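Reader question, answered in our methods column.
A reader sent in the components of a multi-part assembly and asked whether the whole thing could be modeled at once rather than chain by chain. We filled in our standard form and ran it. Here is what they sent:
COMPLEX SIZE: two components
ENTRIES:
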Amino acid sequence: MSAPQITDIAQAEQGTSLWRDAWLRLRRNRLAVCGLAVLAFFILVALLTPWIAPYGYAQQQLAVGATPPSAAHWLGTDIFGRDLLTQIMYGGRVSLAVGFIATAVALLIGVTWGAVAGYAGGKVDAVMMRLVDILYALPFMIFIVLLMVVFGRNMLLLFLAIGAVEWLTMARIMRSQVQSLRQQEFVEAAISLGLSPATIIRRHLVPNALGPIIVYTTLTIPSVMLLEAFLSFLGLGVQPPQTSWGLLISYGAESMEEYPWLLIFPGLALTLTLFSLNFLGDGLRDALDVRGAKD
Amino acid sequence: MRWTCAARRTDPVLKVENLSVSFVTRMGTNKAVDDISFTVETGRITAVIGESGSGKSVACYSLLGLIPQPPGRIDGGRALFHGQDLLQMTAAELRRIRGRDIAMVFQDPMTCLNPYMTIGQQLVEPLLYHKKVSRAQARDRALELLDEVGIRDPASTIDNYPHQFSGGMRQRVMIAMALINEPELLIADEPTTALDVTIQAQILKLLATLQAKRNIGILFISHDLAVVADIADQIVVMQQGRIVETGNRDAIFRHASHPYTQKLLQAIPRGGKPVALPTSLPLVTVRNLCTSFQSGNTVVKAVDDVSFEVLRGEVLGLVGESGSGKSTIGRSLLRLVHASSGQIDFDGIDVTALQRRELKNLRRRMQFIFQDPFASLNPRMTVYDTLAEPLLLHGIETRSTVGAHVLRLMDDVGLARTFVRKYPHEFSGGQRQRIAIGRALATRPDFVVADEPVSALDVTIQAQILELMRELGREYGLTMLFISHDLSVVRQLADRIVVLYKGKIVEQAATEDLFQRPQQAYTQQLLRSIPGSTLLAADPSGTDTTLS
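And here is the structure of the entire assembly that came back:
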């Protein structure tokens, strides 16, 4: 065999994957890469916080209470003299963890549930989706309060509770995607190759439904973060001296007029995260659509 | 056969001169139509022939301002309609002409009618818009026209909704709608492509009759020379935005000079399969197969007590119109749909009784080739993934060895190896169908069901794919069930043919017997409907000499 053909085989044997191609395409989208970099930075900081934070998160210096940004306290301090940068760093740990873990839970349950219901159709679909309808109808606050009351206040439980609420819409989106996809001949072709339903869902349906799912995911992460803030504000989420961005923002909002930095900096952290997520989400959607930008 | 009218004026109703149209996109400027000129005369039919992408539709649509601008851009030329240049008109002026002086009939009658309006409402709409008539007068006119286009009992069907009509009937309604303002020019864009052959023959005849009676000019766009063989006066052949040949019908069919025209003529399916059939034992035996679907409260019998055999090594053609149950039979054989009753025996295995695990083994030996290569390939999988999937699934290759096998498959189906990492959307229809064929043959099946594998393709591509299937069939020792609505296509591949009508078998015979001596009236009607059959049959030598 001639040389070009050998390289072809080498190319072929590299194995191909949608994800690898998507990554190559994503790299060309500058905004998405910026978004990814910002998120990576935030996550890295959150992971290293206990070692790099300038002060302890509960450390109060009443003498320097509510000072604006200075050399000692880059982002200023709150009324108890706690360093705001430290607070934001620790708060980011909670906010990012809730955002990503709860969304991951929602994604996993929602996509699986919706794909199975959509693919199975008929009675299975009817039963599964009625269950979703019932959960939709429950006021989610009551649901979460109940969970908290029964199991006690617990971070992990908070993640699960929020995830358990957010998966419903995900399941509906996935189901409608799968329903239209399974009519297509390539699914029939997969059946006639002898693939099992699980493989068909995993290899043929989910990748084709990713566009809307990813967009919805990037919208879910911020809404989960805000939900956590809301719950914390009600006293159901994290409690002082632990903190989160949502909590910092709500406290900052109370003293907005005297100490604006207490609102501005946590707000900036959240906004930056949301922007980054949106850009990354858009980039991912385009990157995963193989028909989009030409190589 | 020609439907002509004795008295004819022959001044041009439409004269297109040096028309150029291009599309400007981020990827660059693409010249879709490059300096073309042609005329349509009153009382005559000019056919514009070309494959998809040849610019034929763009050219005709741009005349009426129907291409989006941008990205479309008319670079130059004139289109004189009674001395007025259509290309210079404002949108408002064009609106007055569209539907009144120049009317259009589109390809797909299923999507061109608004499903929420009765056909009566849709028919009177252009009349009320363009002319000062009362609703009652408009309705009377609509009734007259429905009668003229051959809708039975128009008075009682005028208030029906589009879904209550068949495809052929809808196309008749579309034609009535186009004619209601008595236009002088009718632009018909592939008006019969979406229809069954017998219906196609009727619509073509209707167009020719109406045209002669009303003395209007028709611009007929088609990808298929055979379709216009019976009706066109003037034929314009387009390739890649340019006109490669223009001439009257006889000149084109008898003395085509341009190689592309000759290639198109050559691609018109005709003649039969060269070799005689093998005499062997049946591989697949179907006994009293019935398949029905529940639609609402009614049960539709798609397949009604059908029995036939497919002999080892033969190609059995299954022919019928839409709704004849031919696809359902093919799908039943592979258990893609469940048979209501009856037996399907594949090499001693009762297909209808298999459990899931056994079914997987069976599917290694039986494969399916689908009609639409745009839908049958997963858009998010590369050629490599698509071809590797069956090999890995059935344990024929491992991850480390599959690459070489995939490349061999690509060689077999005639795809360049460098395409291995590309996605389906980067291929043309013919190439996609090659991928689909490669996937079906990957497991080296004994039996393949091919469901209209070429009907979504351009004619020249059709010929290539049929040739490929014939070659591979021989090479792989395949037994094949070849499903098609098109008898002339089936004739090229099939050893025997089964003709279906409304879920029942009408006739089955060896291919040439069926063509020479059709026994049943329905078969005879199907044979007569093959487009261009009269012209091509009348003088086979004349066409052959041009195909050197």
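What stands out: Residues 1-9, 538-548 of chain B have pLDDT under 50 and may be disordered. The longest strand of chain B covers residues 12-25.
Send us your own complexes using the same form.
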